[in-house]
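Dear colleague,

Following up on yesterday's call, I've attached the two folding results inline so they're easy to grep. Please treat them as preliminary; we haven't cross-checked anything against experimental data yet. The first protein's sequence and structure tokens come first.
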Amino acid sequence: DTLEYKKKQRPLKIRMLDGTVKTVMVDDSKIVSDMLMTICARIGITNYDEYSLVRDMGEEKKEETTGTLRKDKTLLRDDKKMEKLKQKLHTDDELNWLDHGRTLREQGVEETEMLLLRRKFFYSDQNVDSRDPVQLNLLYVQARDDILNGSHPVSFDKACEFAGYQCQIQFGDHNESKHNSGFLE
């Protein structure tokens, strides 16, 4: 038999949906649900029971830009792959959620592995603090990504409306000298 000594505290890298990475010291002997209380408290999220961690398994590197609108590409897809995506409905079931009742070590999560923090349960909009920019940003990015990848299907009209909001968020008010024909290409 082999006996291994490991530190009780370890740094855990958490990637947020907006691409930022936070490193949080966690107690490696605690189960994931207890760790989430610590992680969310450090990040500033109060309703920790609605969030969970996902193993980030070989996800394609997103382009190093902040733009989501281009002629043939967005942050999550390119138009050539859209036909395949339309044939398949994506759900959060495809995500590799960590088990809340087990430790990271029991689930084989290495110390070098980065985990993704996502909202897993949507109990009520009343749980979203409209004054909390961290929580609002995470919720917005997750909703935007779910619309883009097809796990939250919307009508064409709603997609156009959301694209308009995204343009407003990303580029601000229309500036005729800056936002001319071909600007998004």
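Below is the second protein, in the same order (sequence, then structure):
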Amino acid sequence: MFARFSRSTAPPQAGRTGNARPWRRSRSNVEEDTSLETGDRTPDPQHEPRLRIGGMALENGVLFHTYRNWAMAVRDGSGAIRVSSGSKNTRSPVARLRRYPVLRGIASLADTAMILPRAVAGGGRLPLPTDSPQVMFTVAASMAGSALLKNPKKRMPPLIEETLLSVLALMPSLVALRKTPATGYHAAEHKSINAYEQAEVLDGESVASSRPEHPRCGSNLVGPALAMMTLGNALTRRILGRRSNLARFGVSLLSLSGALELVQWAARHPRSGLAGAVIRPGAGMQQLLTTAEPSREQMAVGLAALEELLRLEKASA
């Protein structure tokens, strides 16, 4: 069960990061992290257990989580930072699935989704700008384009059709993320995790100087997942001789799981040329579309969420 509490802090002064306190760590404890943003906790045989922190950008803040706990910081209407946090149910059926290959990727995503109702209750706003005219126009155009492609009177090779359908399905999400507060908070999320993993002192300065991209970002899944979905849907259509919604659903799940496994492998082999090819599209997407240089206020929110998560982890250790 989740144990949640909230508190507010005054808006930070210029050049400061709210009530953030420096958090020190030894550089000898820092090693390359090779997981996705799934919140796992991986032991280091020579040092203390090292946290693998997952994250999610909100429209008004940042959410972090590990295998056991979650923490969120948001800006409320008055400009104050509100912090909410709690524990996760590590004995749920979903959590138990995370030990099995292929299934663990879907289980991790489901585990994150289970936190979202608590995040919304704590004042978090999910980045779903459905009131944006540009987004609604893109959704309508995507649906119209998909309907035209599925017209049985206009046949084209299945692989080409599935490729176009995948691109059309992705467009509304890309338009929704452009030039929104969520892109700044997305970068603040990455900067906070990068500072935690690489800096000797976790404070406003180390967060500000960290990279806004991260190798475990979910953006890295887009390229591999779309490629697998395109090939999988084309193959099932060839085998079945028709388009099947049930088959497409199964292909989507398997493709997402396969993409997670592939990106995990790529993170474990950063010097491999294939690994670079897997990660490169997602890195470009982060730089061009899904992140923007965060403001000082946004970085203060990210740091507040991370400090709260580290406090919970220390208390529950």
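For the second protein, one point worth flagging: Residues 1-47 have pLDDT under 50 and may be disordered.

Best wishes,
A.L.
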